[in-house]
Amino acid sequence: MVKAFSRRTVLITGTGITAGLAFPGVAGATPAGRVGFGLDAETLDGGEQITSLTLATTRFGPIDPASLTTTTFSVHAKATSPIDTGGQDIGYELDRPVTAARLDRHGNIVLHLSHGEGQTGGGTLGYINGKGRNVRLDLAYTVTQHAPVRLRHGRPVTFSGFTQGRLANPEVDAFTYHASRSGMKYRLYAPSERRGRRPLIVWLHGGGEGASLPDGYYDNETTLRANRGALGFTTREAQAVFESAYVVAPQCTAAWMDDGPRFAPLIHEVIQDVRRTHPIDPARVHVTGCSNGGYMTMKMTTVHPTAFASSVPICGVVAGRQAGDPPLIPDPELTAIRTPTWLIASRDDDTVDPQANSVHAHDLIPRAELTLYDQVVWNGHRFPGHWSWIYAARNDPSTRGTHLWQWMARKVSGG
Question: Which of the 8 DSSP states describes residue 183?
Fold first, then answer.
């Protein structure tokens, strides 16, 4: 049964939770101890989802994989908000279908769960409309055993219960945690190849991934879990194109558009922190971001005109928030930008008008590139038109035979 469904996908952990009831037993089945399990997550284009559970069963001895079926265990998930939502139910409670059961290379049982873009109940984040924020959901998973598993020497075993452990997302976990001297939190990915000076890619998140300070919520997590904007640059393909790049993802204490001129030096401080502590090539620092972060990407190139080798604003904002408001980035500032710029948007974006923002900026920024999609579709799934960052994270935009990442990698600045 589904109790609620969040508008956007989300994230969570939830450790040390006692969960699940063991199969009550059958004749000849041997009772065993409690089993801990971890939540295995993956950040899809639409956000992070729990894709499987890993049950730590190695200590009980070799298990016969033939004794595992999709009905041996069932999985129930409950997600709740960690902060006040003003009455909005952003969580859910439902049974997660088990699509496969197998053993990993260590001999642990892995339960694969039904998941995918647009599916209910797999997400780890919840979007609070009244705050305009994604938050990590508190997740409680329950595992129930319905039939014994058989050890390879033939003995059937039932477990006495299950205890939830940590959430693991290898792509996200590759980013370390940091904070600047001014208190701005950020995550940093360091490439495996670090000999010589390497490029740095700065990812500026959208409005939903900022902090909610009135609620004491500043998690340094949602920037990597709400979409693949930063993660795309850490893939093997991207790292080959950029010849081993660092990737930094600062988290705003509010929304970048609330006060771009104030946040610009704070972002610059984060970049300087990374440059001071890691072998960064100052001529190959790139800045990119989506929506709120698309605005901030352009703002950074107006405040620091020679700092970046390239700029990629995605569905960014330059116009005023409402009709009659002054523009967030005035036309003279746009025409003065000298950083090589490639703008990306979709014509069906009903959150940020592409004509008044991306197209307008393209017309004013000297020698700027523009990729304007008709809609946002990836792997057969249609996403909201605002989510054009999906294309950038997949290196889809191209011009005159050159794709986005290759175009960025060729650019250098005066440092």
Answer: -
Residue 329 to residues 13, 241, 336, 357: CA-CA distances in angstroms? 39, 32, 11, 10
**Is residue 386 classed exposed, middle or buried when 0-12, 13-18 and 19+ CB atoms within 10 A define those classes?**
buried
pLDDT at 126 over 60: yes
Euclidean distance between CA atoms 405 and 387, whole angstroms: 18
144's enclosing H/E stretch is: strand 133-145
* pTM score above 0.90: yes
220-256 confidence digits (pLDDT tens): 999 999 999 999 999 999 999 999 999 999 999 999 9
- Phi–psi pair at 340, nearest 5 degrees: -55, 125
Phi, psi torsion values for 285, nearest 5 degrees: -105, 120
Q: Which of 294, 276, 86, 122 shows the shortest CA–CA distance to 203?
A: 294
pLDDT at 32 over 70: yes
Q: What sign for the dihedral angle of Cα 46, 47, 53, 56?
A: positive
3-class DSSP assignment, residue 167: strand
How many angstroms separate the CA atoms of 319 and 355, rounded?
10
Residue 414's pLDDT is 78
Which pLDDT score, from 0 to 100, does residue 50 have?
98
Evaluate whether 358 touches 342 at the Cβ level (below 8 Å): no
Instruction: Report residue 335 as tokens.
Output: 């025409």
**Coil, strand, or helix at residue 93?**
strand
Query: What's the DSSP call for residue 275?
Result: H
CB-based contacts of 402, cutoff 8 Å, min separation 6: none
pLDDT at res. 82: 97
DSSP state, residue 134? E
Neighbour-count burial of 324, counting CB atoms closer than 10 A to its CB (0-12 exposed, 13-18 middle, 19+ buried) = exposed
Between 9 and 359, the more confident residue is 359
Mean pLDDT of the chain: 93
Number of alpha carbons in the 13 Å side-chain half-sphere of residue 330: 5
pLDDT of 415 reads: 65
The predicted structure's pLDDT at residue 193: 80
Q: Rounded to whole angstroms, how far apart are CA atoms 260 and 266?
A: 10
Closest CA to 159 of 66, 44, 73: 73
With CA atoms as reference, report the closest residue to 205 among 255, 131, 140.
255
